Amino acid sequence: MNALRERTDVAAELSRVVGRFRRQLRRTAGRGFDSARLTESQTELLWLVGRRPGISVSAAAAELGLVPNTASTLVSKLVANGLLIRTVGDTDRRVGHLRLAKPSQRIVDESRAARRALLSEMLDELDGDQIDSLTKGLEVLNTMSRLLQERRS
User: Which of 35, 84, 114, 133 is deepest in the core (most CB within 10 A)?
Assistant: First the structure.
């Protein structure tokens, strides 16, 4: 009973802390994209394309855990809004490759730089043991992310 309660407590705390961290980082460093105009899924797609220019629509869908037709709908809306550019593949015209439009790329670059600077400042305030604990925790979160993605596949 106690082990189950501990796992439940850890699960609740994990969701609370990760959510709070994301909100605080976004609020402190800036959102980047106007949240009133874009859904969270659209924003995540733009961030992904900013990290991986030229990614295919199907690879982006897999990375974000979306079904391909949902990703395609997101892409179409972002292309229509001038935020994303979709090109056809050189060898297979059915494959769409994505890159950010210049204004979107500027927003992603500026937001990423602001977040990295803020996180660097925060890391400077931690001691060595806290950095080690954080590193171990990040390894666990990465494993959990992979397991969650495998469950969706």
Answer: 84
